[in-house]
Predict the structure.
Amino acid sequence: MQITVDIPEQFGLDQTKPEVGNTLKRYAALALFQAGKLSAGAASELAGLDRYSFMAECKKHNIPTINYSADDLHAELADFRKAS
């Protein structure tokens, strides 16, 4: 899918057109991943990054990469203790 977005020159952030496009795709991927709309793999692909680089971008923007609640952790630990 191709989408055309008109961005005024002053918002180009001193980047070339391809760089602006890549920046927008990266931020879209981060936002969609954070919202739970894309998996890490799909978001990495959209951003044009390998998974490790995408996870580094998430860390840089304080986006958690693991959605694991404290209750889930406690339940899993209890199951682990029962099995041991």
